[in-house]
Amino acid sequence: MIFNRCSRVVMAGLFAGSLALALPHYTEARHLAMNPEMETKVDTNHKLKMGGSSTRTVERGKQSLEERIAAILHPTVEKQETGFRVPQTMSAYDDAIIGTPLASQEQCVKYLLSVNPQPDISVSPKELVSYYYEEGAREGIRPDVAFAQALKETGFFRYGGTVTPDQNNYCGLGTTSSDVKGAYFSSAQMGVRAQIQHLLAYASTRKPSEPVVDPRYGLVRSSYGAQTLNSWTDLNGRWAVPGYSYGQSIMSMFREMLSK
């Protein structure tokens, strides 16, 4: 009887020892099942004991974990890809329609207010300029020069011609004579968008990123087909008639803006 009791004690001890050895592996397996992304790290730790190139794998697993933690703590918004490249504007004498701005938004506002302290627009000068930079960046059109064009077309937002301030029409779109007032737009931003899209229609065969609000976009594209205009001076006699120095005057105003 004493022998049988001793045997049972020994067997129980052996079973408990086996269970103690197996339990960590069970816990680890359960942890892996609940966290499959940790599998690489555990597996590479096992390989590390065996030598070889597993050290690099461990480092990659560690880096991946750190990147995931950083992504949680510091979430970022993915930058929207435009799908096209815009050449960087390097000189104030570069008269290309497509490009990046040289003037700051502050310079645009200062230039306007230096000539007309009370522009007749439905939003603040700062907000209007921000629309030019937003819409211009979206389509690859130089926003500072487009704003200079608006200043020329509206007389620094004094108007006085066929177009009136309530139209939110900053470039005379659709104004073909003194009797035709041209297009109306629901907001200042839509007016800016239409102007930028009209410039794009001349400068590129690429379709606008946003739905077309320029009422004459299709007319320009159907007329020019595969042909495009590269510079602001190419708009002479096209955007404005006769417009012999139309583009030159816009570029001159733009360069004055840079001095502010």
What is the CATH class of the largest domain? Mainly Alpha
Ranges where pLDDT stays below 50 over 5 or more residues in a row are 1-7, 9-63, 74-81
CATH topological fold name of the largest domain:
Lysozyme
**Average pLDDT value?**
79
Order of helices and strands: HHHHHHHHH
Structural class: mainly alpha
Q: What's the architecture of the largest domain in CATH terms? A: Orthogonal Bundle
Total helical segments? 9
What count of domains describes the coordinates?
2
Tell me the radius of gyration: 34 Å
Q: What sort of overall outline do the alpha carbons produce when their principal axes are compared? A: globular
Secondary structure tally: strands:
0
Amino-to-carboxy terminus distance = 107 Å
Main β-sheet description: none
Strand content: under 5%
Relative helix content: 40-55%
